[in-house]
Design brief:
Helix content: 25-40%
Distance between the termini: 44 Å
Strand order of the largest sheet: 1-6-5-2
Strand content: 5-15%
Order of helices and strands: HHHEHHHEHHEHEEHE
Largest sheet: 4 strands, parallel
Bound molecules: zinc ion
Number of strands: 6
Length: 240
Amino acid sequence: MLARPNFLGGIASLLYPPSCTICSASVEPGEYLCEECGSKVSRIAPPFCSKCSEPFDGAITTQFACANCAHRKIYFETAVSAYRARGIVRHVILNFKYGRQIHLRHLVARWLRAAFDDPRLRDRHFDAIVPVPLHPARERERGFNQAALLAEWLSERLSLPLRPALERVHYTMTQTAFDRAERMQNLRGAFRLRKKADVRSLRVLLIDDVLTTGSTLSECARVLKEAGAQSVHAATAARA
Ligand SMILES: [Zn+2]
Ligand SMILES: [Zn+2]
C-alpha cells in the first residue's frame, strides 16, 4: 500500500519534470525557482528596526526601533524576517496560502529558516515552537493552517518541540482595511491558550508566514506571556 503513492509520484515527476513556480523554466529536483527568479527575491539587509525588522535606507549603525514600534507596547522580544513580502515572495506565499499549492511550503519554509542567520535568533535556545493559529472555520475553509505547516517543518529541522499552544477564538474580519490602532483593537481577545497547554517558563519561538504590522504576533505574545512564557521571539518567512 505504501509503495503506491511513491510509485505514482515517480511517474508524475517523469511526466511533469520540476519547473520554476514563477516562469516554468526547468529546475533541479527539489528546487522551486529558477536561478533568474531566485535572484529577484528581495532579502532584507541591515539597517532595520531591532524590534520588528522593518528595513531602512541609509547607514544607521546603532540599534534603533522604528516609529511603528517606538509608540506602542509590543509583547514579543523581536520579530525576524529575512525577506520582503513583495514580488516573487508575495506571489509564492499567496499561492501557498490561497492557491492550495501546499508543496510550496518547502520554499516558504526555507525563507523562514533564513531568519535564523540573524544574530537575534541564531544563538538563542528555544523550548517550544508555537504557530500562530487560524480560527477553526478558516482552517476548514483553507484546508490547513500555513503557520502550522511552517512550524512543523522548522520543528523537524531544528529538533525543537512543536507546541500548538494557542487557539483563535474570534473569526476576525480581514485586517487589511484597518489602520494599526484598529488592528490591535480588532485582535483583542482573538487568541487564548489551549486547554491543557502549559507554556510556563518556556522560551517560545512564535511562527507565522508574514508579518504585516506585527499586531498579530504581539497579541499572541501577550497571551503567551500572560500564561507564563519566559520570552517570545518571532520568526516569519517574510514581512510586508
Ligand atoms: Zn523562473
Ligand atoms: Zn519596528
